[in-house]
Write a structure and sequence with these properties.
The complex is a heterodimer of chains A (465) and B (479). Chain A has 465 residues and is an alpha+beta fold. Chain A folds into three domains: 278 residues, no CATH class; 108 residues, no CATH class; 59 residues, Orthogonal Bundle (Arc Repressor Mutant, subunit A), CATH 1.10.10. Helix content of chain A is 40%, strand content 19%. In chain A, the strands form four sheets. In chain A, strands 1, 2, 6, 7, 8, 11, 12, 13, 14 and 15 form a ten-stranded mixed sheet that branches. In chain A, strand 9 and strand 10 form a beta hairpin. Chain B has one domain: Amidase signature (AS) domain (Amidase signature (AS) enzymes, Alpha-Beta Complex). The longest helix of chain B has 24 residues. Classes of the chains: A alpha+beta (465), B alpha/beta (479). The interface between A and B is large, with 31 and 45 residues.
C-alpha cells in the first residue's frame, strides 16, 4: 500500500501599505521596539479601529491576480483568543464574508484551487531572553492577507513551487514585498496521508509559521516521513498543531493547553460592512499587471521560449516588464530573452531600479545590429550597459559598430596566423580547439569591433587556403 | 442652566474661577454623603483661570468655563479612567475621548470623574469597586445606573451637567431616579472613541443635565462624525442647534405602549406617565394606545447581545500591558487568569461568562444569532410604529429608585427592570428621560420620549416643551 501526501496551505502575506490596517501608524520593518504604536494598535481602552481602504484595494488586487471572485460586500469578524502578542485579545479577521472567494494557479500542469483570501491584522512580536518576555507591537495591526488553498498539493516540491508562484504574483502586483526573511510572507501547512487507493483524507496536522522555501520543503518532508511511520506501524495520527524546528529539521507537537480552540467568531460591531462597487473591481483589475502565471503560458506557448528561459525572465518583475515591452514592439523573443536574462537582469539587480531605464526602440536596434553581425556579443553587452546608464544610442554604440567590410577581418586573420605558427600547426594536426584561441587573438587585434562568427569564418578560410 | 451660566460668565456677573470654586466647595461639602465622584480634578482652578482668559478675550464658546462632570468610562488625559473597576485602578489614558476633546477645546472646566457601575454593567451604581453612590432624594436608595454618579451629581448640583453613556438605559434610568433630564442620542450621532467599550453596537455617550435645553446644547457640542469612529455619522437633514421651536404640539402623533403601562409597572409611575400624556393631549397632540408584543423579547435580546460584545471587548484586560496584574504569576496562563479573577467584580464576570457562552460554536446560532434577529425584528416593528407616530411615551423605569438593601439578589429580576429602556438601543433610537412627577414617598418619576433615528431634536423639543410647564424636582436629602 502506498501513501499519498495531501497538502493544503495558508499563506500569510503582509500588505505593502504605508500605514496599518486600522490606524495611522507607519507600516515599516525594522523600527525600534514599540515606536510605531498608538492607542488603536495597542488596544488601549476606548480605542476603535478605522479601516485603511488601501488594504482592501491590495487584497482585491491579490484576488484578481490569483483568479478569485471579489465579494462586493465584505465583513469583519473578531477571532477571540488570549495571547500576549494580541493586544485586544481578539484578532480582527474575516470568517463569514471574506473579500475573495475561490481562484487558483496552475503549477506544472496541475491546477491548485484556492478556497479564499481574507484580510486580517497581524499580531505583535514576542521575544524571550533569560526568563524575560518582551513585547514589540510595531507589527500589531499590519494588514495581512491569508491565502487559503484547497488540499490540492501532492508533494513538498509542488507546495514550494506553489508558494513561489504566489509570492511572485504578489510581488508583481505590488501587494506584498515578499521578504520571507523579514516575515512578510509566512506559511502554515496542513498535511495528511491517504492510501493511494482511497479518496478519503486522513487525519491532518498543521505546521505553523514556515518562513522560507527550504523550511517549507524540509518540514513537509519530515512530517510526511513521521506520519508514514505512524501509519505503517498501525498507529493513529493525532490532529494537532506542530512546530518546525529549524535546527533539527523535524516537527514537534506544540501541545497548546487550549488545543481545542473555540475562537467564538462574531461580526465586529466597530467596523461597518465594506461595500465594493463593480467599478472599483474593474478599476483594480485594469491597474493590475498581467500575473506571472499567464505570462509563463504566453512566453512558452506563444513565443516559443523554453520554460527555463521563461522562468528566468519571470524571476525579476522589472525584467519581465521590459521583456514584454520589447516583445510588443517587435523584438525577436529568443534573442530578447537572452539579453534580458543576461546583462539586463544583472544591471537591474545591481542598480535596484524599479523600471529598466532604457528605450525599447534602442534595445531592439541593438538586437538587430547584433543579429546582422554588426555588434559583437561583447559590444552588445557594452551597448546595453551604456543605454542602461542613460546614454543615447549613438553614444552607446560609438566605436563598437562593425562598419568595415570583411577585408579588414581577413587582414587581421592573416596577421594572427602568421604570428601563431604553433597554433596553426596544431590546427592542421587535427586539434580544431585552437580555433577559438585564434579567434580571440584576432578579436583583440580588431579591438572587438568584429563579429566572432565572421572572424571565425575568415580564420578558417585563411587556414584552409 | 448652561445658557444662564453662559450669560452670567460673559456678562462678568460671575467669574469662571468663582463658578468652579462654588462647585468644588459643594463637592467637598456634600459628596462625602453622596459619593458620586471617583476623582476630583486637581487642576480645576487653573482650568477655570484659563477659561476666564478666553472669556476676557471675548473668545468664549458655549462651554467655556462651564463646570462639567464626566462618567469614569470616558478617557481623559490628566485624570485616571477606571470604569469604577479594580482592573483599571489608577489607569492614566494617554488620550482624550473625542467628546472630552471637543469640550476641552471649548474650554469646559472638568470637575472630575463620576462613579458608575463597574464597566457600565448595572442599574444601581452599587457594583462600583470604589464607592456606592446614593440617591440625592433619599440616601438609603440607589441613584440608578450605570451613569448613577453622573445623575446624582447633576441632581445635587455638584456639576452643571455631566456626560454619561447609555447601553441599555444607563443614562435614562438614573436620570429618572435622580430627577434630571438624560438623553441617549441616536446611535452614530456621537463618537464612541475613548468611551471604554461595553457593547459596541449599543453604547452611546450622552448628556445628563437639568433640562432638555441643556441636553441639546451638549449634544450640539459633542456630536458629529469622527475620524476615529467608523460608526459615527453625519446626521442626515436636521442637526441639533438648540431646541426646535415648537409653536404648538398640534398635529403631533404620540403613541403610548400598552406593555409599558401594564401590570408590571408600579401604579404611581404609570399614573404620572399617563398624566403627562394628558398634558401632551391638552396641548394639541394626538395620543393613542398601541401594543408592541415584540417588546417582551427586548430584555433577553439585549442581555445576549450586550454580554456577547462585552465578553470580547473586556478580553484586552489581561494584565499584560496595563491595568491590574496579579502579584507573582507562575505562567502566562496564571497571569491572565489571576489578573482577571482579581480585577473584575461579580457582575462583570457574570456578563463575560454569559456572553462567552452565547458566542460558543454550537450555541452561537441559538443565542447570539437569534438575539440579533430579534433586534432586527424590533427595528422593523419600530419602523412600522413610526410610520404613524412621531414619538413614543413610556416610563423610563417600571419603578422609582429602590432601596439599597432591596436591590434584588437575583440578577435576572434586576435585568427585567430594563424593560422600558432596553429596546431603544437595540433599534438605535434616540430617547430622552425627563422628570414627570414625584411618588408619595418623594421620589422622582421619569417620562421617556423615544423618537425615530436622527429625530433627537423632536425628542428633546417635546421634553423641553413639557419641562417649561413644571418645576425641576429639587433633592432634599443632602442639605
Amino acid at each position: 500500500m502506498g501513501l499519498v501526501p495531501v497538502i493544503g496551505l495558508e499563506i500569510h502575506a503582509e500588505l505593502s501599505t504605508k500605514t496599518k490596517v486600522f490606524c495611522g501608524c507607519e507600516n515599516v520593518f525594522g523600527a525600534g521596539p514599540n515606536e510605531c504604536c498608538c492607542p488603536v494598535c495597542l488596544g488601549l481602552p476606548g480605542a476603535l479601529p478605522m479601516l485603511n481602504r488601501k488594504a482592501v484595494e491590495l487584497a482585491m488586487a491579490a484576488g484578481i491576480m490569483l483568479g478569485s471572485r471579489i465579494s462586493l460586500k465584505t465583513r469583519w469578524d473578531r477571532k477571540n483568543y488570549f495571547y500576549p502578542d494580541l493586544t485586544k485579545a481578539y484578532q480582527i479577521s474575516q470568517l463569514y464574508a471574506p473579500i475573495c472567494i475561490g481562484g487558483g494557479l496552475e503549477i506544472n500542469g496541475r491546477f491548485i484551487r484556492l478556497n479564499r483570501i481574507h484580510l486580517e491584522e497581524d499580531a505583535g512580536k514576542l521575544s524571550h531572553e533569560r526568563g524575560i518576555s518582551k513585547m514589540d507591537y510595531n507589527r500589531a495591526g499590519v494588514p495581512l492577507i491569508e491565502i487559503v488553498t484547497e488540499p490540492d498539493l501532492a508533494s513538498p516540491e509542488e507546495a514550494v513551487a506553489f508558494v513561489e508562484r504566489v509570492r511572485q504574483t504578489l510581488v508583481y502586483g505590488g501587494i506584498c514585498d515578499g521578504k520571507m526573511e523579514q516575515g512578510s510572507l509566512r506559511v502554515d501547512a496542513n498535511i495528511s496521508l491517504r492510501p493511494d487507493w482511497s479518496e478519503t483524507l486522513g487525519t491532518r496536522t498543521e505546521i505553523k509559521n514556515l518562513n522560507s522555501f527550504r523550511f517549507i520543503k524540509k518540514a513537509l518532508e519530515s512530517e510526511i516521513e513521521r506520519q508514514g511511520e505512524v501509519l505503517s506501524s498501525h498507529g493513529r495520527v493525532t490532529q494537532e498543531t506542530r512546530r518546525f524546528d529549524e535546527a533539527s529539521g523535524e516537527t514537534f507537537s506544540m501541545r497548546l493547553k487550549e488545543d481545542s480552540h473555540d475562537y467564538r467568531y462574531f461580526p465586529d460591531p466597530d467596523i461597518p460592512e465594506v461595500i465594493i462597487t463593480q467599478q472599483e473591481v474593474d478599476d483594480t483589475r485594469n491597474a493590475c499587471p498581467e500575473p506571472p502565471a499567464s505570462r509563463l503560458v504566453r512566453y512558452t506557448k506563444t513565443l516559443g521560449l523554453s520554460s527555463r528561459d521563461a522562468e528566468a525572465i519571470l524571476s525579476l518583475r522589472q525584467a519581465a516588464d521590459f521583456f514584454d515591452l520589447a516583445i510588443s514592439a517587435g523584438a525577436p523573443p529568443k534573442q530578447a530573452a537572452n539579453v534580458v536574462n543576461g546583462e539586463l537582469t544583472r544591471l537591474l539587480l545591481e542598480s535596484g531600479a524599479d523600471v529598466a531605464p532604457l528605450k525599447v526602440s534602442d534595445f531592439i536596434q541593438a538586437l538587430e545590429l547584433s543579429s546582422n553581425g554588426k555588434l559583437s556579443p561583447d559590444s552588445l553587452k557594452r551597448t546595453i550597459q551604456e543605454l542602461f546608464a542613460g546614454k543615447t544610442f549613438e553614444e552607446a554604440t560609438k566605436g563598437l559598430i562593425i562598419t568595415q567590410d570583411l577585408s579588414l577581418v581577413a587582414e587581421a586573420a592573416r596577421q594572427v596566423l602568421e604570428a601563431e605558427p604553433d597554433a596553426v600547426a596544431k590546427y592542421k594536426g587535427g586539434n580544431t580547439k585552437v580555433l577559438s584561441y585564434l579567434v580571440g587573438k584576432c578579436m583583440g587585434k580588431l579591438k572587438g569591433k568584429a563579429h566572432p562568427a565572421a572572424v571565425s569564418e575568415e580564420i578558417k578560410k585563411a587556414l584552409e587556403s | 442652566m448652561i445658557a444662564e451660566l453662559r450669560r452670567k460668565l460673559d456678562a462678568k456677573e460671575i467669574s469662571a474661577v468663582e463658578l468652579a470654586r462654588h462647585y468644588i466647595d459643594r463637592i467637598s461639602r456634600l459628596d462625602g454623603k453622596l459619593e458620586s465622584y471617583l476623582h476630583v480634578s486637581e487642576t480645576v482652578l487653573e482650568d477655570a483661570k484659563e477659561a476666564q482668559k478666553r472669556i476676557d478675550a471675548g473668545e468664549s464658546e458655549t462651554f467655556t468655563g462651564i463646570p462639567t462632570g464626566l462618567k469614569d468610562n470616558l478617557c481623559t488625559i490628566g485624570m485616571p479612567t477606571t470604569c469604577a473597576s479594580k482592573m483599571l485602578e489608577g489607569f492614566a489614558s494617554p488620550y482624550d475621548a473625542t467628546v472630552v476633546a471637543k469640550l476641552r477645546k471649548q474650554g469646559a472646566v472638568f470637575l472630575g470623574k463620576l462613579n458608575m457601575d463597574e464597566f457600565a454593567m448595572g442599574a444601581t451604581t452599587q457594583t462600583s469597586y470604589y464607592k456606592k453612590t446614593k440617591n440625592p432624594f433619599d440616601l438609603g436608595r440607589v441613584p440608578g445606573g450605570s451613569s448613577g454618579g453622573s445623575a446624582a451629581a447633576v441632581s445635587a448640583e455638584l456639576c452643571a451637567f455631566a456626560l454619561g453613556s447609555d447601553t441599555g438605559g444607563s443614562i435614562r434610568q438614573p436620570a429618572s431616579f435622580c430627577g434630571v433630564t438624560g438623553h441617549r442620542p441616536t446611535y452614530g450621532m456621537v463618537s464612541r472613541y475613548g468611551c471604554v467599550a461595553f457593547a459596541s453596537s449599543l453604547d452611546q455617550i450622552g448628556p445628563l443635565a437639568s433640562s432638555a435645553e441643556d441636553c441639546a446644547l451638549v449634544l450640539e457640542a459633542i456630536s458629529g462624525p469622527d475620524g476615529f469612529d467608523r460608526t459615527s455619522m453625519r446626521s442626515p437633514g436636521f442637526y441639533a442647534s438648540g431646541l426646535k421651536k415648537l409653536e404648538s404640539l398640534a398635529g403631533l402623533r404620540i403613541a403610548i405602549i400598552n406593555e409599558l403601562v401594564g401590570p408590571s409597572v408600579e401604579r404611581e409611575t404609570k399614573d404620572a406617565v399617563l398624566e403627562a400624556a394628558k398634558w401632551f393631549e391638552k396641548n394639541g397632540a394626538v395620543v393613542e394606545r398601541i401594543s408592541m408584543p415584540m417588546l417582551a423579547h427586548a430584555v433577553p435580546a439585549y442581555y445576549l447581545i450586550s454580554s456577547a460584545e462585552a465578553s470580547t471587548n473586556l478580553a484586552r484586560f489581561d494584565g499584560v500591558r496595563y491595568g491590574h496584574r496579579t502579584a507573582s504569576p507562575g505562567s502566562y496562563e496564571d497571569l491572565i487568569q489571576l489578573s482577571r479573577a482579581e480585577g473584575f467584580g461579580w457582575e462583570v464576570k457574570r456578563r463575560i461568562l454569559l456572553g462567552s457562552y452565547a458566542l460558543c460554536s454550537g450555541y452561537y446560532d441559538d443565542y447570539y444569532k437569534k438575539a440579533v434577529r430579534l433586534a432586527d425584528e424590533l427595528k422593523v416593528t419600530y419602523a412600522a410604529v413610526f410610520k404613524n407616530y412621531d414619538a413614543i411615551l413610556s416610563p423610563a423605569s417600571p419603578m422609582p429608585a429602590f432601596a439599597i438593601d432591596e436591590v434584588p439578589s437575583d440578577p435576572a429580576q434586576l435585568y427585567l427592570a430594563d424593560i422600558c429602556t432596553a429596546s431603544a438601543p437595540l433599534a438605535g433610537l434616540p430617547s430622552v428621560s425627563t422628570p414627570c412627577g414625584m411618588t408619595s414617598g418623594g421620589l422622582p418619576i421619569g417620562l421617556m420620549i423615544t423618537c425615530p433615528r436622527w429625530a433627537d431634536d423632536v425628542a428633546l423639543s417635546l421634553a423641553g416643551a413639557f419641562e417649561k410647564d413644571r418645576k425641576r424636582p429639587i433633592p432634599g436629602a443632602l442639605e
